[in-house]
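Illustration 12: RNA polymerase sigma factor.
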Amino acid sequence: MENIQNKELLVLIDKAVAGDKDSLETVILSVQDLVFNLSLRMLGTFPDAEDASQDILLKIITHLSSFKRDSSFSTWVFSIAVNHLKNYKKHMFAKFPLSFEFYGDDIANGKTEDVPDLTQDVEKALLAEELKMSCTNVLLQCLDTESRCIFILGTMFKVDSRIAGDILGITPETYRQRLSRIRKKMADFLGEYCGEYRRGKCHCINRVNYAIQNHRISPAQLDFTSATPISMETMVEVKAAMEAIDDLSEEFSFCKPYQSPAALKQFIQRFLAGTSLSIVQNA
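Figure caption equivalent — predicted structure in token form:
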């Protein structure tokens, strides 16, 4: 998220609603990374996250005049994005849902040693890093949608329980309790199976060819390792950070944010170049 101070942002929103396209573009581009990273963690893959982000950003544009300033702008954006993603059915894992049982069985019993070399001359260490980022992100798909939202808001974005409760329609206490349980479930799974983050026996370098064979990664398209990491502070600023509710908050280093794809910015610019701003003013 571009570092726009709150007062300046509110002025830009007023100008955008009044019909200024440049201000509208600045406002929308300021939240594209937030929207993309939330979508990526909720949906699991870069292509699905990009498609959903386009939908969400268009919703923000068409509903911008309804932003009433009774919360921060980022909280309002979170609410729109979360509501959209909780009901989003066009992504890959909506058609092929995962479970911890399936994931664990695949790690324990996948015939990795029977697969030939499929690396296509791409450095195996690079493919292993891609698999690590992809695998741990896809692991979130083993959670139900609501639990995934809670985990992502509390662990990646570090949204405090009052704000997260408002976004999800639950009490702060319920949010804190559920977040702690979900993080423990994730940590227990990683502890049992993952040798990259915990003490499990699974190491990505040994599963590269198996992952390629099963279309989990592709040497021709390394989404995670080619993406540009960014700091959370430049992407979103909430009024209060997540309270310390357990000792697991730093266990999930794979929840790093990335710069959204250039195609997403180009989509917004093309849309704004060809649309009437009456959609913002009259929504």
